[in-house]
Design goal:
The chain is built from 2 helices and 15 strands. Helix content is 11%, strand content 52%.
Length: 220
């Protein structure tokens, strides 16, 4: 039986399928579909005593529930002790459940530093993106429709944009040592700024095909 289960889900893009399960011993397992790395992750939570204290606080009241979500908003679902809270993703939460929600949100981000089978992006100063496997396990990915959007930001405004498309290598069982380098788009990067690249493709999470997006950035 898990100590707490957390989900962040959205039907509309950008893809969101963030999942976190924390066991009574404090070990966590996570999946995430966007951010600086995508795939499965796992390791101990930062402070299981703090998490248990937050669970005790939440146990004293009914869970918060959202009646309707704004168009395109993601839903957060938190389950513990047979009770379920439903929230608008990233929205402020008050009351006894607030600490628990914040800890789960923090932990799903922290798990990216403990990859089991994940893909991360490394961006070169010319806008070329390299996708690299992280962890010791294997993650199947579908790269046949891989798209990379690159944007140059300068002084808080968009200063250039490019895209790399084309047929990728198809289905790949990405494991330790796997990587693929993608060409830089045709765009003018003179003048400096921050280059942000988003690679969009599909990953296989235990037979569930999930749209994913990896974000990488570099200052030039």
């Amino acid at each position: 039986m898990t100590l707490v289960t957390y989900r962040r889900l959205a039907d509309a893009p950008p893809p969101e399928r963030e999942m976190l399960d924390v066991e009574p011993n404090g070990e966590a397992r996570a999946w995430r579909s966007n951010g600086r790395a995508i795939g499965s992750f796992g390791g101990p939570v930062a402070d299981v005593a703090e998490l248990r204290a937050a669970l005790d606080e939440a146990a004293a009241s009914d869970p918060p529930a959202v009646v309707a979500l704004p168009p395109g908003a993601a839903l957060e679902v938190l389950e513990t002790g047979g009770r379920t809270a439903r929230l608008e993703a990233r929205a402020p939460v008050g009351g006894p459940w607030s600490r628990l929600v914040e800890l789960c949100r923090r932990e799903i981000d922290a798990q990216v530093d403990a990859p089991l089978a994940a893909i991360a992006g490394v961006l070169a100063v010319d806008g070329g993106l390299r996708l690299e496997h992280r962890g010791t396990g294997t993650i199947p990915v579908e790269l046949g429709s891989l798209v990379v959007d690159v944007v140059l930001w300068r002084d808080g405004a968009e200063a250039g944009r490019g895209r790399v498309t084309g047929d990728g290598p198809g289905r790949v069982e990405a494991g330790p040592g796997w990587a693929i380098s993608l060409p830089a788009p045709a765009m003018d990067l003179t003048g400096g700024g921050t280059v942000v690249a988003v690679a969009s493709f599909v990953a296989d999470d235990g037979g569930i095909y999930v749209p994913v997006a990896i974000t990488a950035r570099v200052t030039i």
